[in-house]
Amino acid sequence: MRKPIVAGNWKMNKTEDEAVQLTEDIKVMLKEGINADVILCPPFTALSAVSHSLRNTRIELGAQNMYWEEKGAYTGEISPQFLVNLNCNYVIIGHSERRKYFGETNETINKKVRTAFKFNLIPIVCVGETIEEREKGVTEKVVETHVKMALKDIDEKSCRRVVIAYEPVWAIGTGKTATPQLAEDVHRFIRTLLSELYSKDTAEVVRIQYGGSVKPENARDLMEMDDIDGSLVGGASLDTSSFVKIIQESIL
Ligand code: PEP
Asked: 0.90 cut: is pTM over it?
């Protein structure tokens, strides 16, 4: 049985004070002992304060991105070591907004995934097709390339720890959720691909999240699918009760 995993991607929202407030509210509403991994991914500027606020809780911290070098002349970038020192356990890699607005490619995403493992950070690797690609019927081809390239040169032991987030780009921030069956079809495809790339056993332990307009109203139907193990939540993670409800709905 794979443990449910729900992550909140706050994107470029929340000042430090607002982020701490949101964290404190989530802590109050979320019963300790909940049987899911819960991860908060605030902006870099709030990581330190949120990290402090999460001390002695079971909620974990994630970053939304990082660079692949440890240190040096890379103005404006964030080192994996900085994240480790702030008690981050997870890092989102290759979000479609980073692919679209910041020129991230399958190659740079792979460098980041490899670096994440080197620093013992768990990468949440985002994959998914655009609406044009879906309409052209190349969803599986696109997702296969994203997964294969992100995991290039990643050994099986590391692969077992990776989290893959299937996020159809047309469903992100649009209110259009993929139907549970449509999402499940792609999740199953990814799991089959992992079993070809590694082994059936490894494919069975890798957690695959769905992302794209997840809300309290659709979280349970998605989670009831065999290969959907949790969600990567954008907009709804900025609202305490929506986010907590999604987590509760994810525990079947
Ligand atoms: C996301 O940013 O990863 C996301 C899925 O956003 P939203 O939930 O707002 O669609």
From this structure: yes
The SS3 assignment for 239 reads: coil
Q: Quick one: average pLDDT of 79-90?
A: 98
Q: Domain-by-domain residue ranges, the chain?
A: 5-249
DSSP, residue by residue, 165-178 = EE--GGGTTSS-PP
Indicate which residue of 97, 104, 129, 167 is catalytic: 167
How far, in Å, CA of 107 to CA of 227, rounded? 27
Given pLDDT bands bounded at 50, 70 and 90, which one contains residue 32? low
Is 32 designated active site?
A: no
Assign domain 5-249 to its CATH architecture.
Alpha-Beta Barrel (3.20)
Q: Candidates 129, 166, 167, 210: which one to mutate for ligand 1, based on the most atoms within 8 Å of Cβ?
A: 167
